[in-house]
Design goal:
Blueprint: E1 6-9, H1 13-20, E2 26-29, E3 32-35, H2 41-57, H3 61-72, H4 78-83
Parallel strand pairs: 1-3
Antiparallel strand pairs: 2-3
The structure holds zinc ion.
Length: 91
Amino acid sequence: MRDGCFLYVTDRGLAHLLVTMRGYAAITFGHVIISAREPSDGLWLHERRHVEQYERIGLAFIPLYLWFMLRRGYRTHPFERDASGAARLFD
Ligand SMILES: [Zn+2]
């Protein structure tokens, strides 16, 4: 447990494959963060922002995330831009 989140670090198995098969370092589902390695401070802040997004929009996060990913891709995805500090969706 860290900062009220369950952090699962794995370097093997299905969870590791789920994270890395698209080139990600970590994936967040609600308050559960699955990471392919011990997260750096920057990665931790990024994933914690995704947790805050889940807290704001609940389970709508998943379909909205996928919809924006299909429409815009990763780099201009509003949730990713928000998590990276490039553009805030909410305070
Ligand atoms: Zn992200």
